[in-house]
Amino acid sequence: MILKYRTLANTAAAVCLGTVGSALLLAVVAQGDAAAEPLFSFIYLTGCLAFALACWAYAKAKGRSNLIAVGMPFLGPLGLLALLAMRDKSAHRA
Length: 94
Prior knowledge:
There is one protein chain. The protein is mainly α and about 90 residues long. The protein has helices at about 5-30, 35-60, 65-70, 75-85. It has 4 helices and no strands. Helix 1 packs antiparallel against helix 2. The chain is elongated.
């Protein structure tokens, strides 16, 4: 694995998990409060972008093409499972 991309993938995954937790907490605390909707939308969008970045960086860390790196986030958790199952093609081993 390419260390630079693996570090980026781990950081983006941590941000994604943090935003999911924050969004769930906000949904429970706000309970339909209209004032919380823009904040919830921002947190949700941040989490989606972090997930896409994590999938892209993980595919690049494994030495995969840009087409695979960009396409996998659209498959959601199934795309992530496919990335985890793929063989490492990078010349760098860490």
